[in-house]
């Protein structure tokens, strides 16, 4: 028996519809969600210091090596005087207290300080001969720069006030015995800072290992969005214990000749030549160029009234 063509077509259509209804529906794969944003803060240098400073090396005992290392006797006393001279000239937050105490120290212990300087002059002459002045100037510059490290100045100025208060109450004999301890006390703020800086470098290294390659920095810096930016790579190391790009200058201790008021006009640029390794800058003496230089101890003048 044959069915009419129209009826057969209708039955076929119904069968196909039934089969389609029984088929397993295709599952829609949801889109991959974006990676979760992990809040993180990149470690920053302590006390607003530069991000690329290099801490001093350490000795076998784990102590920072400083220009005052192993100083005893007259050398320790003279280094104390240099450190306190930095405080007298560079601690405005003490409202002149460091200057007053420093000048008082020169009055009370001027003879002891002069004797210490004379002893060191003889020692340098015997050891270095004609290079004595230059060698002593090199060390003096290192000592002044060490005590002038900006991030440690606040704590150093407070320590200087306490140290000079003790010194001004000592007899000359007691001063010589106290000098090494005083030098250690004056160094403590700088050791504390370098310990903080080493901890910052350690935390920064851990942060870079964990987040440095994929971190998403959130928040403007200078008005720019830092998303998709990687943290900057470390720059070349700076000289040990120095702040790069802002070299410290040795503060005048008011006992040395003044520098010329103005430098001569620079000469015309020389024609370009193949680059050669640069020699170290010449040492500019800050003491009189004589066979037996003397360093008369003069008080630090008060700042002019505004």
TrEMBL record:
Keyword Kinase assigned: no
Keywords carried by this UniProt record: Signal
Skewed-composition ranges (Low complexity): 286-295
Region called Disordered, residue ranges: 221-306
Signal peptide: 1-20
Superkingdom in the source lineage: Bacteria
Keyword Signal: yes
Skewed-composition ranges (Pro residues): 266-285, 296-306
Protein name per the record: DUF4142 domain-containing protein
Organism name: Sphingobium yanoikuyae
């Amino acid at each position: 028996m044959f069915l009419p063509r129209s009826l057969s077509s209708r039955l076929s259509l119904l069968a196909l519809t039934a089969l389609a209804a029984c088929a397993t529906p295709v599952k829609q794969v949801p889109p991959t969600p974006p990676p979760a944003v992990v809040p993180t803060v990149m470690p920053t240098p302590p006390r607003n210091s530069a991000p690329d400073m290099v801490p001093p090396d350490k000795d076998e005992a784990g102590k920072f090596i400083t220009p005052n290392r192993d100083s005893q006797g007259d050398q320790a006393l003279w280094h104390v005087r240099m450190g306190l001279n930095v405080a007298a000239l560079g601690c405005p937050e003490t409202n002149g207290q460091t200057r007053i105490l420093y000048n008082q120290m020169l009055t009370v212990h001027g003879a002891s300080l002069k004797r210490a300087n004379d002893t060191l002059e003889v020692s340098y002459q015997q050891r270095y001969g004609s290079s004595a002045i230059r060698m002593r100037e090199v060390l003096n510059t290192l000592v002044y720069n060490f005590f002038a490290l900006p991030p440690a100045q606040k704590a150093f100025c407070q320590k200087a006030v306490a140290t000079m208060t003790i010194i001004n109450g000592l007899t000359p004999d007691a001063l010589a015995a106290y000098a090494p301890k005083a030098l250690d006390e004056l160094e403590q703020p700088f050791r504390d800072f370098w310990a903080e800086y080493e901890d910052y470098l350690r935390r920064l290294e851990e942060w870079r290992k964990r987040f440095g390659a994929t971190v998403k920095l959130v928040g403007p810096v200078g008005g720019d969005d830092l998303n998709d930016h990687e943290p900057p790579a470390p720059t070349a190391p700076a000289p040990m214990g120095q702040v790069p790009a802002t070299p410290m200058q040795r503060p005048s201790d008011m006992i040395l000749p003044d520098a010329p008021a103005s430098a001569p006009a620079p000469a015309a640029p020389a024609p370009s030549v193949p680059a050669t390794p640069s020699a170290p800058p010449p040492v500019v003496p800050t003491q009189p160029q004589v066979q037996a230089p003397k360093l008369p101890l003069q008080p630090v003048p008060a700042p002019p009234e505004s």
